[in-house]
């Protein structure tokens, strides 16, 4: 079992890396060949996935059980 501090640091690092990667991917798709309208469905999916990832970080690392 990990300590609270270790779980917080690892969860924050993992979530931050995922957010940076997915936002960068969405940005490159929307500004590239697909354009803003073509990248809109992917951007909406990215927003939903990020909301789920942030909720999971809150549920696993921040919420006291």
How would you describe what is shown here?
The radius of gyration is 15 Å and the shape is elongated. It is built from 2 helices and no strands. It starts with a helix and ends with a helix. The chain has helices at residues 4-31, 35-62.
Topology:
Layout: H1 4-31, H2 35-62
Helix pairs in contact: 1-2
Short description:
This protein is an all-alpha fold and 65 residues long. 86% of the residues lie in helices and 0% in strands.
**Oligomeric state as shown:** single chain
Helix content: over 70%
Provide the residue-averaged pLDDT: 92
Spatial extent as radius of gyration: 15 Å
| Total beta-strand segments | 0
SSE string: HH
Major beta sheet, specifics?
none
Give the helix/strand class.
mainly alpha
């Amino acid at each position: 079992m990990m300590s609270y501090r270790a779980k917080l640091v690892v969860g924050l690092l993992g979530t931050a890396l995922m957010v940076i990667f997915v936002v960068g991917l969405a940005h490159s798709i929307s500004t590239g060949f697909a354009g803003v309208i073509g990248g809109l469905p992917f951007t909406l999916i990215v927003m939903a996935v990020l909301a789920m990832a942030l909720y999971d970080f809150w549920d696993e690392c921040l919420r006291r059980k």
